[in-house]
Amino acid sequence: MFRRAFIAALLAASPSLAQPVGVPDCTVEGRLTESDGLKIDITYRCRATQPLSFQPGEDRAASHVQGLKVEQRDGVAEAQYRFDLAAFARAVDSTSIAVQRGGGVLAVLGSWLLEPRGYERAPTIDIRMSTGPGLVFSSGLPRVGEAWRLAGTSVRFAGYTALGRLAYRELAVPAPGSLRPGQAKANAVLRVAILDGVGEAARADLFDWVERTAEAQANYWHGFTARQALVGLVPVTHRRGVGYGRTVPGGGVTVMVEVGTDVDRRRLFDDWVLTHELIHTGMPFIRGRGTWFMEGAATYIEPIIRARAGWKTEDEVWREWVDNMPKGVQAFSIGMANAAGQQNYWGGATFMLLADVGLRRATGGTRGLEDCLAGVLWSGLDGSQRASVGEYAAACDRVTGTTVVSGLVERHLNNAEPVDLAALWKDLGISLVAGRIVLDDGAPSARWRKLIVPGSHPPRRVKLPWES
Question: What is the DSSP secondary structure assignment for residue 262, as one 8-state letter?
Answer without folding.
Answer: S
